[in-house]
Structures are given as structure tokens and as C-alpha cells.
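Quick one:
INPUT:
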């Protein structure tokens, strides 16, 4: 007896039965079509999973780029601010060295400099007087006059102030002479080339003569400093001010308020540091201020 082998069908029938009363639909699929559909399904599944992974990575990278863009923008703003501050610092450093040159102090890099005078335009000065003869650079007095003037100093009301408006003869502020003038010491040139007048913080400092403000700003040593050019080579310096009341280029009259007495810069108590220079040489203010001569 011979047994016949059952043949496998090479076709699959798919039957679609609708919910309504329509006739069902049937169609046949070969084994080759089934394999193709399986491969296509696997490919679509791989692409779907890959798309999800790609989208997640893309989202993370986009968020990082946003953060980096924000940081980069801030860095650019900071760099712009740094460049601006650097330029301003260079200007301030030049002004600082210029003031130190005028005062005859050491420059910021430690080098000793000789006094130099920077004159403003002639048309910005006022009330020039005839040329005065210049004595040799002053040496220290044999006796300290600090005790002699250790009393309340008050401005002189002499008529000579009106006669010599561009000569610094007016006491800038009432107070007590707390530190005297010194040009040279046994150890070399002195750093104290003016007088200190102690007073109350906020006292009004007045111009010692007619002139034009050529500097009004901050310095390391003298704090808020004002420099006035009076013409004919005369300059006066008002240091350690609490506040400067005028700006550079302002014209001033003798006795006009220019600053408020303070304690800025290298200072231990409220006082005015006052200097007089002429033709690049510093002079003892007591030789000019009439209050010291009781005139």
C-alpha cells in the first residue's frame, strides 16, 4: 500500500469579513508575497525605532545648542564690556601718569619723573599778569613753622586779592595747618610739596585765584583732585576732596566754591592738601597766601 505525501499549499487565502451584510472579500497571497511583507515590516520597524532615537538625540543637541548660543552671547557682551573698560582704564592710566608727572611723583611703573606742565589753550585762561621772576627751587626752612601757624586759619579780606586776581593769594578753606610744606629732606626729595589744612568734612573749598579747571577727577594718592591753571605759569592743586563741584574746562573766580573738603585717597583725616606750582616748580603756599602774612 502506497501512502501519498500531502503537498503543502503555496498560497494563503486572506478573508475579510465586514460587519454589515456585504459579501466577504477574499484574496490569495503567495509565500513569496508573505516573505516580502515580513521583510518590509521589519524594515519599517527598524526605521521607526531609528527615527525615535534620532529625534531624541536631535532634541538633546538642539537644547545644548540653545544653551551654548546663550552662553556665547553673554561672552560676547562680557568681551565688549571688558574692551570698553580696558579702553577707559587706559585713559585713566594716562591721566593718572599725567597728574603724577605734574606733581613730580613716581609714575605707575615705579619710575621717577620730573615735573612737567601741560598748558591749556591760551584762550581758555583768564587775567594774565606780567611775567614774574622765578627764584631757585625752595629748600626747607631752618625752623618748622607748624607751631607758628597752629591756630584757626581764616581767609584774609585784603584788597590785594582783587588786585592780583590770577595770583593764588586766597586761603582755600578755613582750618588748622596740620602738615607743613617740605621740598627736600635729608633723604632726598620730599613727597609733601604742599600744606595740609585740617577742617570739617564737607567744608567748602574755594579757588585761590581766577583760572580754569584743567583736571577734576580721581587719583590714587590725592583722591578727588582738582587742578586749576591761573595763567602766567601758576597752577594750584586741591586734594583729598569729598567731591569736586566743577568739571574740567570750567572758568572760576577767586573765592568761588570748587569742592567739598574730604578724606579721599591716602588720607587719615578730613583735610585739604593744597599746592602751588609756577613754571614747573612747586612753591611753599605760605609765601603766597595772605592769611599767613596777616595781611
Amino acid at each position: 500500500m502506497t501512502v501519498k505525501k500531502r503537498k503543502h499549499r503555496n498560497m494563503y487565502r486572506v478573508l475579510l469579513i465586514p460587519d454589515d451584510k456585504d459579501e466577504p472579500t477574499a484574496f490569495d497571497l503567495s509565500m513569496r508575497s508573505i516573505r516580502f511583507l515580513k521583510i518590509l515590516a521589519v524594515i519599517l520597524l527598524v526605521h521607526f525605532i531609528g527615527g525615535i532615537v534620532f529625534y531624541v538625540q536631535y532634541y538633546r543637541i538642539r537644547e545644548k545648542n540653545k544653551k551654548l548660543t546663550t552662553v556665547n552671547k553673554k561672552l560676547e557682551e562680557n568681551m565688549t564690556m571688558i574692551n570698553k573698560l580696558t579702553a577707559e582704564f587706559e585713559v585713566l592710566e594716562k591721566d593718572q601718569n599725567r597728574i603724577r608727572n605734574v606733581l613730580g611723583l613716581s609714575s605707575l611703573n615705579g619710575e621717577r619723573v620730573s615735573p612737567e606742565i601741560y598748558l591749556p589753550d591760551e584762550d581758555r585762561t583768564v587775567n594774565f599778569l606780567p611775567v614774574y621772576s622765578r627764584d631757585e627751587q625752595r629748600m626747607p626752612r631752618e625752623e618748622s613753622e607748624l607751631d607758628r601757624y597752629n591756630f584757626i586759619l581764616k581767609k584774609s579780606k585784603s584788597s590785594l586779592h582783587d588786585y592780583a586776581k590770577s595770583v593764588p593769594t586766597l586761603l582755600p578753606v578755613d582750618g588748622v595747618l596740620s602738615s607743613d610744606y617740605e621740598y627736600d629732606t635729608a633723604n632726598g626729595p620730599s613727597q609733601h610739596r604742599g600744606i595740609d589744612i585740617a577742617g570739617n568734612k564737607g567744608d567748602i573749598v574755594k579757588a585761590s585765584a581766577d583760572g580754569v579747571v584743567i583736571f577734576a577727577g580721581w587719583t590714587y594718592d590725592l583722591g578727588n583732585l582738582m587742578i586749576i591753571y591761573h595763567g602766567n605759569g601758576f597752577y594750584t592743586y586741591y586734594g583729598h576732596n569729598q567731591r569736586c563741584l566743577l568739571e574740567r574746562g570750567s572758568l572760576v573766580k577767586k573765592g568761588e566754591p570748587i569742592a567739598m573738603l574730604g578724606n579721599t585717597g591716602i588720607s587719615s583725616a578730613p583735610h585739604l592738601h593744597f599746592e602751588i606750582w609756577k613754571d614747573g616748580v612747586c612753591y611753599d603756599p605760605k609765601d603766597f597766601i595772605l592769611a599767613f602774612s596777616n595781611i
